[in-house]
Each structure stands twice: as structure tokens, then as C-alpha cells.
Amino acid sequence: MTLQRLLAPLRRAIQDYNMIPQGSKIAVGVSGGKDSIALLALLNAFKRFSDNPFELMGITIDMGFKDVDYSPIQQYCDKNNINYVVKKTDIAEILFDVRKESNPCSLCSKMRRGALNATMNEYGFDTLALGHHSDDVIQTFLLSLFFEGRLSTFAPKSFMTKTQVSLIRPMIYIEERNITALVKSLELPVVFNPCPANKHTQRETMKELTDSLRTKYPDINKRFASAIMHPERYNLWDKVETLYNTQKNAPVDKE
Q: 194 or 215: whose pLDDT is higher?
């Protein structure tokens, strides 16, 4: 897998949703996982030919777990002229030692996002880029459906009024398997995640479900993505009255 192959869907997502206005200062939230480092590499490559010039940096929120080494990411960023910051926090201690959270993911996400936003404000950056891909879009949709009874997923871009930060997800048209292949082919640095909740979440259950479905229906991800990304195909019951009145008042063909 090459950068060039994945730059096309990245660029299409950025253009479709106007994610990067001219002069944007974009910080990639680099967790240490494959998705965020792939996004950093892709945006750094896209930066060279983007119609709208922008600044780029990587930010890692160090949650305070022991024996986590982010130096491979630092070395990668130095080699590729990318500004990189590691912000140390005590999030892990608060979650697991103080609060003893049994289901820490939601609170952890809020705390890490808060630390990211604060660090961005400190360095004068206005746009946060996250490494969510098309599989994440589908898994979030299924999580909302199964556990909340809602038809919902995250947006390609949004604006956080409290911190005045734009949030973008440029990899929404890219499948996870292609990101995995890119990271392997480019030997991008991936840092082990020591979080006790890693791989033991409801999201992981949704991932297992979609992987299982894909073995029987190879195009299932494309079908899900198409339904989510094309609202004109939406046909649920809130349209019943409109459709009924349209049919009832339609001209009668007397032939």
C-alpha cells in the first residue's frame, strides 16, 4: 500500500466537506496507534500539494501509564519535519487508581479531548484532526443503534464552541485494512497501548460483528457506508405522511 493510493480518498473527503480552509493550523491527535500515525503521514504528504496551505503538528496526550515510549514517533516526526508535542497528564491515575472506573472509555475520551484542545490553544492551533476511518463510521452507527436505539454516527467535521476548535476526520473514506497495509508498508511507528480496557470495549464487539458479516457479505462495509453517507436514500417512517400526501394528490393517469 502506498501513500499515493490513499491520498485520493483523503483528498476527496477533505474537499467534500471543506475540512481545511486556507490558513488552517491542524493538530493531529496522535494516540500511538496505527490510525493516527497514518493520518499524520497522509496529511504531511497532502500538505505538499494542497490548494489551501496549512500548518501541521502532532500532539500526543501521555495518559501517565508506565513504560510507554513515544520516542519512535518523535524520531519519525523529526525525520519528516513535523512539529510534535507530548503532553504529560495523570489521566490514567485518575481513571484507574482514584475513581476506579470499570467502564472508563467515555470519561477517558472526554479527558483526552480536553487535554488535546488545551494543548492546541497553547500552541495557537485551530483544527483537530482525528484518525477515524470508514470502519469507525459504521461501528459508531451500530453502537448507537444497538445500545441507544438511535440512527446516528459522528460527523465528518464539527465545531466545538467552548474551545473554538474545529474537528475533522479526513480518513472517513478509507477502510481500516488499507490503513493497516499502509502502516506496514511504510514501517510507521506504532506504540503499544497499555490501557487495561484496550480490546475489551463495546466498540471492539461491533468490530467483531462487522468482520464476521464481511466474511459472508464482502461488500457489507460499502453498503453501510453508502447508506450513511447518502441521506437522499433515507426512507424511514418520518416520511410516511409526506409520501402518502404526495401519492394521494398525484394526477391520475386515465389511459
A: 215
Q: Is 218 helix (H, G, I), strand (E, B) or coil?
A: coil
Q: In what order do the strands lie in the sheet with 157-160?
A: 83-88, 55-62, 25-29, 127-129, 165-168, 157-160
Could you tell me which of 46, 58, 56, 49 has the C-alpha nearest to residue 24? 56
The number of residues in the chain equals 255
Query: Parallel, antiparallel, or unpaired: how do β-strands 157-160 and 165-168 relate?
Result: antiparallel
Q: Which residues contact 193 (CB under 8 A, 6 or more apart)?
A: 31, 32, 33
Cβ atoms of residues 108 and 95 within 8 Å: yes
Q: Collect all residues with Cβ–Cβ distance below 8 Å to 102 and sequence separation of at least 6.
A: none
With pLDDT > 90 as the criterion, what percentage of the chain qualifies? 57
- Residue whose entry in the numeric block shows the C-alpha cell 481500516: 176
Q: Which pTM does this prediction carry? A: 0.88
The beta-carbon contacts of 193-196 under 8 Å, at least 24 apart in sequence, are: 193/31, 193/32, 193/33, 194/65, 194/66, 194/67, 194/68, 195/63, 195/65, 195/92, 195/108, 196/96
Four-residue CA torsion sign, 11, 15, 19, 22: positive
**Residues 152/240, Cβ–Cβ less than 8 Å:** no
Cβ atoms of 65 and 34 closer than 8 Å: no
